[in-house]
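Input structure tokens:
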């Protein structure tokens, strides 16, 4: 068999028509979930607490231009919520998808303190959805313009979301193949006993073997669940496992909306035939709903489809390579966290730190002990005390602050102690290095103290 034949076969496969109902249902539930999350953020007062009250914000490298916008943050959340609702309804879908991606991602980028894996995942999925014909079925756009109704879409449109889910799960599983997780049951050995007041099952969490069982099951679950979900025979049982696993995770650990994001997103693995059958039943009851019943197939303009597919190829290549960037850095990943973010490493470590800073006047030699509470919120201080890029950015904040307040050529020194996965705290930073002179960047931070232990694994 020659290569051109293989290429033609692959292209024919990814363009194979499948029911658009699957993409439409995903659009609805995903959009409603983001809308609900936005309302929840607003009602709980987290907009003010996380994005308005802090004096300083920690930026992502390369995104220093994303600035906090004060009271206008409420307008940004309103835009996010409205565009999420429009996205779910399929109303001016393309505009709604772009606005939702931009507003959600801007919120995410405003302060690195609030980074969560599922925020990153939502941004990536929203970016994908911009390019997909998710308004081809049961959408307000199709109500206004019935010509938009298409009962079928190319397989790659739904396949791209499934692939993104698969990457997340597999990398999360690979990350768990380390000696702390599998051989020491860390950090679950620390976390589970704290949940021993959980009704019915709480007493079990005092047993070490439960932590080991949870650790091994978590690794096996992540590595295998996308393959069980893609298989028609195992899909119902796999989705039940998704629900049980993530609901239990939600009960035991305060990780926000992540479990529900994964439960909702896993629906995309269901056979598009099942989704179409569901919409057909709804159509029999609610005749006026814009649900596609004729066998129209959504067809991309040839050049546009080719361009989108090339773009998505680059996108997924980046997603496959990015988690491995930690290999370019020296030192233990869990210690330095250089290359840790954006690599689907979920709940892998318990890291506690204590950070004390001193600012020295470069001319008079006067030393000023810094009270971190005067500059940072409790959550910001907690994150800063264990992550090198936070420490460096905070040092620059202190430099600028004291320079404005009359300190000449301020020097900033940090004494930071960090404990990792039950180990005793040890010195994290070189106390002799003036962090005011260090530059933020992608290079290894040489002022970090070495980690004397070894964690084996990926």
């Amino acid at each position: 068999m020659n290569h051109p034949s293989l290429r033609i076969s692959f292209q024919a496969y990814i363009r194979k028509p499948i029911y658009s109902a699957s993409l439409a249902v995903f659009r609805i539930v995903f959009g409603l979930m983001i809308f609900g999350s936005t309302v929840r953020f607003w009602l709980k007062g987290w907009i003010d607490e996380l994005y308005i009250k802090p004096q300083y914000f920690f930026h992502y490298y390369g995104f220093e231009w994303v600035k906090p916008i004060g009271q206008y943050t409420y307008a940004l959340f309103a835009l996010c919520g409205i565009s999420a609702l429009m996205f779910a309804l399929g109303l001016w879908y393309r505009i709604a998808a772009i606005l939702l991606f931009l507003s959600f991602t801007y919120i995410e980028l405003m302060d690195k303190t609030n980074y969560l894996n599922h925020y990153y995942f939502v941004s990536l999925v929203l970016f994908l959805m911009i390019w997909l014909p998710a308004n081809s079925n049961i959408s307000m756009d199709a109500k206004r313009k019935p010509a938009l109704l298409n009962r079928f879409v190319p397989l790659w449109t739904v396949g791209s979301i499934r692939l993104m889910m698969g990457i997340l799960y597999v990398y999360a599983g690979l990350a768990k193949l380390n000696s702390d997780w599998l051989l020491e049951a860390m950090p679950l050995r620390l976390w589970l006993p704290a949940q021993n007041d959980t009704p019915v099952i709480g007493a079990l969490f005092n047993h070490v073997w439960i932590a080991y069982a949870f650790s091994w099951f978590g690794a096996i679950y992540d590595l295998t669940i996308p393959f069980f979900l893609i298989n028609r025979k195992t899909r119902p049982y796999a989705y039940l496992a998704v629900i049980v696993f993530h609901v239990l995770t939600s009960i035991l650990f305060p990780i926000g909306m992540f479990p529900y994001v994964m439960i909702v997103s896993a629906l995309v693995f269901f056979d598009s035939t099942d989704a179409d059958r569901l919409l057909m039943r709804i159509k029999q009851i609610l005749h006026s709903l814009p649900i596609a019943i004729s066998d129209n197939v959504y067809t991309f303009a040839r050049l546009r489809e080719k361009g989108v597919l090339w773009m998505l190829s680059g996108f997924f290549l980046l997603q496959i390579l990015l988690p491995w960037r930690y290999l370019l850095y020296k030192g233990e990943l869990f210690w330095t966290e250089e290359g840790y973010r954006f690599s689907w490493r979920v709940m892998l470590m318990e890291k506690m730190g204590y950070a004390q800073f001193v600012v020295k006047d470069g001319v008079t030699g006067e030393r000023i002990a810094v009270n971190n509470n005067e500059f940072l919120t409790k959550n910001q201080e907690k994150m800063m005390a264990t992550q090198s890029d936070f420490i460096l950015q905070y040092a620059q904040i202190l430099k600028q602050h004291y320079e404005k307040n009359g300190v000449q050529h301020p020097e900033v020194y940090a004494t930071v102690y960090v404990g990792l996965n039950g180990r005793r705290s040890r010195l994290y930073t070189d106390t002799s290095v003036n962090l005011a002179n260090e530059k933020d960047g992608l290079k290894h931070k040489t002022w970090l103290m070495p980690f004397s232990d070894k964690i084996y694994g990926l």
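The radius of gyration is 25 Å. The chain has a mean pLDDT of 91.
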